[in-house]
Request: fold
Amino acid sequence: MNRDSLELRTTVSADGTLRLHLERVILPEPGPGQLLVRVEAAPINPSDLGLMFGPADLSTLSRDGDALTARIPDAAMPALRSRIGQSLPVGNEGAGTVVAAGPDQQHLIGRRVAMLGGAMYARLRLIGAGDCLVLPEGAGPEEGAALFVNPLTALGFVETMRAEGHKAIVHAPAASNLGQMLARICKADGIGLVNIVRSPEQAALLRGLGAAHVVDSSTASFHEDLTQAVAATGATLCFDAIGGGETTSIVLNAMETVALRDAAAYDRYGSAVKKQGYIYGALDTGPTVLHRSFGFSWSVGGWLLFRALQRLEPATVERMRQRVVEERTTTFASHYTARITLEQALEPETVAAYVRKATGEKYLITP
Amino acid sequence: MNRDSLELRTTVSADGTLRLHLERVILPEPGPGQLLVRVEAAPINPSDLGLMFGPADLSTLSRDGDALTARIPDAAMPALRSRIGQSLPVGNEGAGTVVAAGPDQQHLIGRRVAMLGGAMYARLRLIGAGDCLVLPEGAGPEEGAALFVNPLTALGFVETMRAEGHKAIVHAPAASNLGQMLARICKADGIGLVNIVRSPEQAALLRGLGAAHVVDSSTASFHEDLTQAVAATGATLCFDAIGGGETTSIVLNAMETVALRDAAAYDRYGSAVKKQGYIYGALDTGPTVLHRSFGFSWSVGGWLLFRALQRLEPATVERMRQRVVEERTTTFASHYTARITLEQALEPETVAAYVRKATGEKYLITP
Reply:
């Protein structure tokens, strides 16, 4: 059995250089509970880009032999202190075929699995069977490539809503792969969802999925439309992947406008309705700006899938995983803009395309 | 028994005029459980100013007979919808002498009480005995005027810290009357406190109270000093009355810097240490700006005394009230810049002075 792999690695050096390269690695034989998987497809999620490129200045991207380098601004270096000199593998999730297995896992050889756990931008991945979902016979690699991050995040939003006592959700930007999954879940489960999109085309896409409340931030009536949709759904919870700018602020103020309409009496401290905003991404890395016309009953915080899953009941998480496998070709189907090899992932022109993070665009690495 | 009172009232009309005036009111006789109190002293807290003046443009203040008027910007009117046309009394807290009482409260006639409940900027206040603290014989009105808002807020910070699992607090701006109380509480109880002040004079004031960690935002070494103090105390909780600007953001970033120093391994999502900022005032009504270099384990929210007290155990709240009365002339002593009458509170020059909200300045109404 050939256990020679090639792994995409990212390294920051003390002098402020980011370096991406492909590293030859010989993996050990799988032990008990382990699988050796030939990676067939792994998506590039925004969360992967954070580790791959960190805060590097991408205008300085250049080739250095087979590697790719870029400069990191001095101001960003303190936050990277703990990764200096470490060659880190990349790729949160992926799918592939089991080519070898520990003595207790021999029955899985030849099966296709979906995997979570990092280091997926590689030819081979040695992984615990518990970090895999075994796909049904006949399922292709693209059906399993992205069954963890986006599907569990979308379901995690709904479970967070339930756990924290909200009845509907506002989501921005809603036309992403994740946003489309959330729209399908909310339609199927009868949950109120306000989809904030950034163009008429995105609005049409969401409406095509059956979304009842789609508001377009590029239109003059955005604030009014948003307020109406918040009133119609009763949403008091928002998930925002943009992060920078005023999106969360605008949503909280719309929620407060609705709450004040319903308020019996004036309260100088604003409504008592708790308004929660979660920032779960950083498509805009600029500052978050909050215009606090929404009283004192509000909270804005970071939301991270892995930490949120730890706060949920194990039975809830298991139910989420089962649903993802069952609905992998419908609710949780991802669509890809392009498929690239590991080598292509290090070409400056290709990098420029996949780091753009355009809503609805998604790249797949097919090692 | 004379039950003629004079109450300071604030009214917003639909055309955008704010009007403050003194209203003659004849109060009913106190019923069971009630006290009629001659108000002797009531502080002007920032929270009172919010109700008195709302978002009025104070450059337009002018007299209209015995009343005072100001214009409210059009953009601010929607948030005031539910108070239009209502003549609202003002003054969260105060102290006075019981001049009449319900049949079951006759023993309190002649006693001095501290009161909470609004409408304290008045000659007389009819109030439930449960909303009063009876002061010991000989206690003057100024000892009782401000025993609720600031003392319970300062103690509320400490109880919030305990309830949410933090071990130390950062407070800004720390030289306020409230900040001085908090410094005394934390010193007495051995709780880590980082005091952010805005001048060398304020720093000296806090150090004079025995505060161990005082950092001055007007100095070049502010960020470095703050980070050191956060490291020394282990603070992961911040209370910020400024609200607008970057104060909370700077504090959360200092907390993250400390957390990353202690982190074993690099995590692209930042440290797992939960950093909590609470905004409990709006000395700066401009937007809150968050530079999110502090990862994803963070939350910023509004904090309001009355809503926080409702979340605490009743026994905890009772213990807080007892401590306030016992330590009214030490831990919880307030200092006043000036004493003014109800009539003076409506003079434009006096208004200009007391709305400045300068740290450490505080006005007392002595009807």
Q: What stands out?
A: DSSP finds ten helices and 20 strands in chain B. Chain B has a mean pLDDT of 94. The first helix of chain B runs from residue 46 to 53. Residues 4-146+334-365 of chain B form a domain with the Quinone Oxidoreductase; Chain A, domain 1 fold (CATH 3.90.180.10).
